[in-house]
Amino acid sequence: MEPRIETLASKKLVGKSQRMSLVNNKTSDLWKRFMPQRNKIQDRIGEAYFSIQIYDDASYFQDFNPAAEFTKCAMVETDSFLNIPEGMEHRVLEGGLYAVFIHKGPAKDFPKTAQYIFSQWLPGSIYSLDNREHFEVLGPKYNTIDENSEEEVWIPIKLK
User: Fold this and answer.
1) For the domain that residue 32 is a member of, what is the CATH number?
2) Which of 48, 53, 60, 126 is at 20 to 30 A from 15, Cα to Cα?
3) Model confidence, pTM
4) Each residue of 57-115: pLDDT tens digit?
5) Sign of CA dihedral 123, 139, 9, 79
6) Range of 31's domain?
């Protein structure tokens, strides 16, 4: 599973966020709160959804602890921060260099993809992890329980 390397321009996103950990995973609750209100977002760009993880600092991966908290966001891209629906927030997704992997299969199999990225690909590459947002782009091929599901996994990187 080789990634493509991309330089991403910054993006304007609107949606909801929540603090959580892997032990106290509230991803499903976050998306259940977001999805019924998604059509209230004006000036949306495209049909994709963004599942974003924001870690407090780079030590999250160095001193891995499944109880460590991070912020997770359920968002869509927009070209304007005007008229943000009540109860939603806006965020600028920082641009930069990313390794983009394709995870194929249901969401329950995602830990295998993450383990490959962080324990095999990244250590053997010419890149190291950068301290920016990690995210998945959930497009038309995404379905949380489908064996044929696909999502893009964007990992922030920099040259070693």
Assistant:
1) 3.20.80.10
2) 60
3) 0.94
4) 878 888 788 899 999 999 999 999 998 999 999 999 989 999 999 999 998 899 899 99
5) negative
6) 4-159
Contacts of 126 by beta carbon, 8 Å cutoff, 6+ apart? 159, 160
Q: How far apart are the first and last CA of the chain?
A: 21
Looking at beta carbons, which pairs linking 157-160 to residues 24 or more positions away fall under 8 Å? Answer: 157/5, 157/97, 157/98, 157/99, 157/122, 157/125, 157/127, 157/128, 157/129, 157/130, 158/96, 158/97, 158/127, 158/128, 158/129, 158/130, 159/126, 159/127, 159/128, 160/126, 160/127, 160/128
How many domains are contained in the chain?
1
Taking the C-alpha atoms of residue 88 and residue 110, their distance in angstroms, rounded to an integer, is 27
CA 135 to chain CA mean position, Å: 2
